[in-house]
Amino acid sequence: MPLDMPGASESVHWVDGLKTMGGAGEPAIKHGYAVHYYTCNTPMGDSCMTNADGDFLIVPQEGALRVRTEFGVLCVEVSLTVVGLGSQQQCRQHTRTHSRS
Fold first, then answer.
1. Residues 6 or more apart in contact with residue 3 via CB below 8 angstroms
2. DSSP states along 13-54
3. Count of structural domains, the chain
4. Is the pLDDT of residue 46 over 80?
5. Domain range holding 28?
6. What average pLDDT does the structure give for the chain?
7. CATH of the domain at 74
């Protein structure tokens, strides 16, 4: 079941909506994993983030997400994508503007 999205009067971008659920391992030796979930309903604007702790496996539960990295743009629908360690990313909800043939 998907997590609740912010209300219509609340603006939450991807970084502010990123929450840690749990994990295992030892961060000091960079061995292990962490599980996060996100909710967002507004673009990140001119901000971006860098995850220096590890790779992101991003799995949208509903809707789509547009992830802009220094390697290009990923339009991720209900599937998954991986963003590598140390890469910068900027995320926002993605609205499909074309139809599939």
1. 37, 39, 61
2. -TTTTEEEEEEEEEGGGTEEEEEEEE---S--TT--EE--S-
3. 1
4. yes
5. 18-93
6. 76
7. 2.60.120
